[in-house]
UniProtKB/TrEMBL annotation:
<feature type="domain" description="Haem-binding uptake Tiki superfamily ChaN">
    <location>
        <begin position="42"/>
        <end position="247"/>
    </location>
</feature>
<keyword id="KW-0732">Signal</keyword>
<feature type="signal peptide">
    <location>
        <begin position="1"/>
        <end position="21"/>
    </location>
</feature>
<dbReference type="Pfam" id="PF04187">
    <property type="entry name" value="Cofac_haem_bdg"/>
</dbReference>
<keyword id="KW-0449">Lipoprotein</keyword>
<dbReference type="InterPro" id="IPR007314">
    <property type="entry name" value="Cofac_haem-bd_dom"/>
</dbReference>
<protein>
    <submittedName>
        <fullName>ChaN family lipoprotein</fullName>
    </submittedName>
</protein>
């Protein structure tokens, strides 16, 4: 495996490492650091156009929380759709068939595995709840081949034909708050590699995914303007200066709510309402 490619995916693993949360399960409102019941989060989510719930991909409790919020919103009989990072937008037909019940779970699992490397069982309850309740699932991610190519050689390495196949409006802008956020957290890892080029390519790949997922959210909302979309993604895509920021840059005027698990970077009062609305902490294991 080429060194640049291996480093890129090593850092993606760092981005999703679990951390020890404070003792006692709780939800914290970031604006005033007050503990609140989950029902407050759900009430705020009910009023928002877009609800983003971050995850550490291999942490089952984060997915349980995502499903709990989805269940609560469904119980309120709201028009609802679920946008997922784990599926690429070019697999939408397969997603639609699975939700409609015309594709079996056994048939869908290999398709899921082609899109995502984490265990299907971590996401199964969410997908099956959507299927049982006919809640549309939207594949948000851009094709992984393009992400890999950008991580190796930057956005400039894409051919005009490859760029044309990206969702309309996709951009790769390094001059945005999210890139600075990544630089503060992960720049040390890259600074001695290829004179900063590896970090630049990493940021470009992240921005490509944020912009592409934002475009797919906006596209679905245009088609179904009264539908609330719950986005399930890794924490660094769900923060306000990632997908929501890219939506704003594309001119989408959506009210948002961001719920995050309390990872290391957000612990001990480091979370800001500029990035997150609510934090969920879980008992230490």
């Amino acid at each position: 495996m080429p060194k640049t490619f291996a480093l890129f995916f090593a850092v993606l693993s760092i981005l999703t490492l679990p951390c020890h949360a404070r003792a006692g399960q709780s939800i914290t409102r970031v604006s005033d650091r007050q503990a609140v019941p989950l029902q407050e989060v759900v009430a705020k989510a009910e009023a928002a156009d877009l609800v983003l719930i971050g995850e550490v991909h291999d942490e089952a409790r984060h997915h349980d929380l995502q499903l709990e919020v989805i269940r609560e919103l469904k119980a309120r009989k709201l028009p609802l759709a679920i946008g997922v990072e784990v599926m690429q937008s070019d697999y939408q037909k397969e997603l639609d068939a699975f939700v409609a019940g015309t594709m079996s779970e056994a048939e869908f699992r290999p398709i899921f595995a082609r899109n995502w490397s984490y265990d299907w069982r971590l996401y199964r309850d969410i997908f099956m709840f959507a299927r049982e309740n006919r809640i549309p699932i939207i594949g948000l991610n851009v094709p992984k081949e393009l992400v890999i190519k950008v991580s190796r050689g930057g956005y400039a390495s894409l051919t005009p034909e490859e760029r044309k196949n990206l969702p309309e409006g996709t951009t790769c802008d390094l001059n945005n708050p999210h890139t600075e956020f990544l630089k503060q957290s992960f720049g040390e890892i890259f600074k001695h590699n290829a004179k900063g080029r590896v970090f630049q390519y990493f940021c470009e790949a992240q921005t490509l995914r944020n912009s592409g997922m934002a475009t797919n959210v906006a596209r679905y909302r245009k088609k179904a303007p009264k539908t609330k979309i719950v986005v399930l993604s890794g924490v660094w895509h769900a923060v306000k200066n990632a997908i929501p920021e890219q939506l704003a840059r594309q001119g989408a005027k959506l009210s948002t709510l961001v719920l995050m698990p309390e990872i290391r970077e957000f612990s001990d009062g480091k979370a800001s309402p500029d990035f997150v609305d609510y934090l969920a902490s879980f008992p230490s294991r």
